[in-house]
Amino acid sequence: METVFVNGELMDRKEAKVDIEDRGYQFGDGIYEVVRVYGGKTFTMKEHMERFYQSAEKIKLHIPHEMDELTGLINRLIEANSIHDGIVYLQATRGVASRQHHFPASDVKGSVVAYTKEVPVPQSQMDQGVTVKLIEDVRWLRCDIKSLNLLGNLLAKEEAASEGHFEAILHRGDLVTEGSSSNAFMVKDGVVRTHPATNLILNGITRRVIRDVAGSEGIPFQEDAFTLDELLSADEVFIASTTSEVMPVVKIGERLVGEGHPGAVTRKLQGAFRKRIEQEAPVAH
Ligand SMILES: Cc1ncc(COP(=O)(O)O)c(C=O)c1O
């Protein structure tokens, strides 16, 4: 039996139902998080939970659970499903109400659901590197909110994936923003660069861990936007997310990055990231 979390209760997935007038379903009026599980333990849970409540606040959505209570329920869910290496998907919407654009009455409670899934670490892609396609970023101007509205991201990912690429790297005009479901980084002369945490990107939790480990490894890390030309002449490129960790990019469209192999700085960051996982979730392999 697969156990899921729906509005305060753990239940069999077969019993979980969503109302057709849930505002998440009709409008994408909600927010979400994806938390990594390694060796049965969550990684950077606090940071994900804080971002979840911050996203909710930014769209004026009240989550009907205290953070500690929700964290405890998620840990119970992971245990109930005996997740080893996987993820927790957590979502909150503005609840169920007759369809109208403005917010429902304040007595309508937000819906909160969560489920778990085994997701192996993508080791061979992390070893060999992946390819990406450059796509114009046509999303809205509040990409800092982890909103359920992902059409801009989905269309970009689909276009890239249908041509055999792992990810789409997005750009607004000449400036690179982020991936369709990841943050984007370039390395030139030993310096790592990524877009600053503005409204134009999601401030990834993985991005923050990378900034942190770069600091302890003595790798210069700059949060300033870079151009397409700079990306295309980078020594190394990588993307990062909760599920992909530090993922080397070896080809952009038809063009090789450097020599077409994961670079030394990327490798160093992958190693340091792994160490951080082992510190936080000691039974992870
Ligand atoms: C658009 C976007 N940017 C960045 C990220 C990376 O965020 P995190 O490292 O918190 O998973 C994601 C993750 O899903 C994303 O969807």
Automatic annotation (TrEMBL):
Its cofactor is pyridoxal 5'-phosphate. The keyword Transferase applies. Transmembrane segments: none annotated. Pfam families: Aminotran_4. The keyword Metal-binding does not apply. It is an enzyme of class 2 (transferase). It comes from the Bacteria. One of its GO terms (molecular function) is D-alanine-2-oxoglutarate aminotransferase activity. It catalyses: D-alanine + 2-oxoglutarate = D-glutamate + pyruvate. Keywords: Aminotransferase, Pyridoxal phosphate, Transferase. InterPro entries: Aminotrans_IV, Aminotrans_IV_CS, Aminotransferase-like, BCAT-like_C, BCAT-like_N, Class-IV_PLP-Dep_Aminotrnsfr, D_amino_transT. Its EC number is 2.6.1.21. GO terms for cellular component: cytosol. Belongs to the class-IV pyridoxal-phosphate-dependent aminotransferase family. Homodimer. Acts on the D-isomers of alanine, leucine, aspartate, glutamate, aminobutyrate, norvaline and asparagine. The enzyme transfers an amino group from a substrate D-amino acid to the pyridoxal phosphate cofactor to form pyridoxamine and an alpha-keto acid in the first half-reaction. This is D-alanine aminotransferase. It comes from Rossellomorea marisflavi.
